[in-house]
Amino acid sequence: MPRRVSVTVEGFELAQVFTIARGSKREAVVVVAEISEAGRSGRGECVPYARYDESVESVRAQIEAAREAVEAGASREDIQRFMPAGAARNAVDCALWDLEAKLAGRAVAGLAGIGDLQALETAYTISLAAPDEMAVATLAVADRTLLKVKVGGGDGRDAERIRAVRAASPVARLILDANEGWTPGDIRANMLVAAEVRAALVEQPLPAGADAVLAGIPHPVPICADESLHQTSDLAALADRYDCVNVKLDKTGGLTEALVLVREARQLGFGVMVGCMVSSSLAMAPAMLIAQGADFVDLDGPLLMKRDRPDGLIYAGSTVSPPSSALWG
């Protein structure tokens, strides 16, 4: 029976407005690729991201352009060659992993040589807002052990934001994520505040392409690359600037490349964070594989939505459990 590829677009209303340094959103819009063969189907979900010049239309077009080759039997290794890294390849790659596992009657983790998956501690994101609003949002989740705090407001109030969150949650580990929102003029002062509150990590403080400054300033708190890192070939240029890298499947173009990237990052001495876009459990599921053993895990996308898809991941307190085969893998 020949393969068939289908592409759908879905929207998930968020529980509340989600704001980062680049703007706000009320809905998570995702693209899902489904590949069927011999009575089995595999799915992969991705998030088109305007920061990387992606749109729903462009991602759908990339998947449609790959349809003929995938339906003719193109493998995961094949699509690495003719699809660029990014959201579209992520959806197709993860769908192929899921399909391969279902056809083989095995788990993707086993096929990838990872073994049994464990429940993990995941961050929960505090959206960018006024300091007092962020303190209130933090108090509502004060029992969580790992918080990701969006900063980079560009209004000179990030020190207030950071201190307000720490006052509301004295014990939790904090990841401060500026989404490229700091500048060479304010990064030193902000880094000192990060150290003052005992932050565990500062994520992408400066714009990608303008982060050479990081090589010449102290790192009182480890600094993590996000927008500056997409795939394995980017790692070498980051060695003198960053202490850690944030691996996201929508950047790497899927699980296949992400597995290589994590292995190479470890060999080069980087810490590893595994993150996500705002999306459903279907996008989180393959990320759970590369998150095994990561230093930081940020897979809270479904927690930010009013509803998740059926058979979604199970979140309990600060932990997230591995996916069921009914969802993916």
From TrEMBL:
Cofactor mode of binding and number, as noted: Binds 1 Mg(2+) ion per subunit.
Pfam families: MR_MLE_C, MR_MLE_N
SMART domains (UniProt xref): MR_MLE
Gene3D superfamilies on file: Enolase-like C-terminal domain, Enolase-like, N-terminal domain
Keyword ATP-binding listed: no
Enzyme Commission number(s): 5.1.1.-
Domain Mandelate racemase/muconate lactonizing enzyme C-terminal: 131-224
Residues engaged in binding Mg(2+): D177, E203, D226
Active site: K150 (proton acceptor), K248 (proton acceptor)
Gene Ontology molecular function, alphabetical: metal ion binding; racemase and epimerase activity, acting on amino acids and derivatives
Family: Belongs to the mandelate racemase/muconate lactonizing enzyme family.
Top-level EC class: isomerase
Database matches in CDD domains: L-Ala-DL-Glu_epimerase
NCBIfam families named among the record's database cross-references: racemase_DgcA (NF042940)
Name under which the protein is recorded: Dipeptide epimerase
Keywords carried by this UniProt record: Isomerase, Magnesium, Metal-binding
Domain of life: Bacteria
